[in-house]
Write a structure and sequence with these properties.
Layout (H helix, E strand, L loop, with lengths): L1 E3 L4 E2 L17 H18 L7 H23 L5 H23 L12 H24 L9 E4 L2 E11 L1 E2 L10 E2 L6 E9 L5 H8 L3 E4 L5 E3 L2 E8 L5 E10 L9 E4 L5 E2 L3
Antiparallel strand pairs: 1-2, 1-10, 3-4, 4-7, 5-6, 7-11, 8-9, 8-12, 10-11, 12-13
Helix pairs in contact: 1-2, 2-3, 3-4
């Protein structure tokens, strides 16, 4: 259930507890692509392509780069630059491979070889490492607010994680349960764990949402704009867990947020 401050409510569907992005696409296409790529690489290593081996490997690298760019274009992650860095790294590796093939320096470790392929590949390693590290950090942010309890008149919650992005939930795919923010605003999503009565969790959030505000270091104060829950069901259809959240939409430039909610002490969030 999603509830906005304007009082409009709509069904958000159900996702697994702990999921950040509902409506994730099936991994079948990824598995098929990996299977084809591994098969081509093994065939090349076995010498099955003969003199067409450089062409086959170039096509494989080009297809990998195209697949990455297409995936980023379709999924629209909240942070683009790590994926741009990875794509640039793959392009540099591809260019270095073409140069090695053209200069016939593949496997040549002599001091007289051309250094142009190495000059192309070395920055690629730096970009690849930076991109991969950035995606891991952004996928699992650790908030100093994690573990803090929030006591409300109708229920008690524990802050699980805090996420940031340009949509709610951050990183979600376009669909009925994904809210894209207007330019100039960012999404701050506070995931909560229910303490005690799970059935009354949604009522407690709705009735106390108006008392929740975020204050940034520039003095900007933002009221909660949405509450909801992510529900996981058991094999017999019974409710096993409810993971509620509280969403804010502060200006894009705001940083260093502090949550003020009812009579609870101020809670500092990340970013």
């Amino acid at each position: 259930m999603l509830v906005s401050t304007a009082g409009a409510a709509e069904s958000a569907g159900h996702t697994h507890a702990g999921a950040v992005c509902p409506n994730r696409r099936s991994p079948i296409a990824t598995i098929v692509f990996l299977a084809i790529g591994v098969s081509v690489a093994l065939a090349a290593a076995a010498g099955l392509f003969g003199r067409w081996e450089p062409t086959a490997l170039f096509c494989l690298g080009l297809a990998t780069l195209a697949a990455l760019v297409a995936s980023v274009w379709v999924r629209r992650p909240s942070r683009i630059w790590p994926w741009a860095a990875i794509a640039t790294a793959l392009a540099l590796f591809l260019a270095a491979g073409v140069e090695r093939s053209a200069l016939h320096t593949m496997g040549d470790l002599t001091s007289s070889r051309s250094l142009l392929p190495d000059l192309l590949a070395l920055p690629g390693y730096v970009l690849l490492a930076a991109g991969l590290l950035a995606t891991q950090i952004s996928c699992a942010p650790k908030s100093p607010a994690a573990g803090r309890k929030v006591t409300l008149p109708n229920g008690t919650f524990t802050i699980d994680t805090v996420e940031f992005g340009d949509r709610t939930p951050p990183g979600c795919q376009p669909g009925p349960s994904c809210v894209q923010l207007q330019p100039g605003f960012q999404a701050v999503l506070i995931w909560l764990k229910v303490e005690g009565d799970a059935e009354g969790a949604e009522l407690a959030l709705i009735s106390n949402m108006k008392d929740a505000t975020l204050q940034s270091d520039d003095g900007t104060q933002t009221y909660a704009s949405m509450v909801g829950d992510s529900t996981r069901f058991g094999a017999a259809g019974e409710t096993k867990s409810v993971r509620p959240y509280l969403a804010f939409a502060p200006p894009q430039g705001s940083r260093n947020f502090v949550l003020h909610w009812g009579n609870n002490p101020p809670i500092r969030l990340s970013k």
